[in-house]
Amino acid sequence: MDARSTDPGAVLIRRAVAKDAKRLTRLVRTSRAYEGHWAPMVEGYRVGPDYIEAHRVFVAVAGAGTGPGTGTPVLGFYSLVLDTGEPHGPAATGELDLMFVADAAQGRGIGRRLIDHLREEASRAGLDAVRVVSHPPAEGFYRSVGAERTGTVPATPPYVMWDRPELMLPIA
Question: Which H or E run includes 23?
Answer without folding.
Answer: helix 21-29
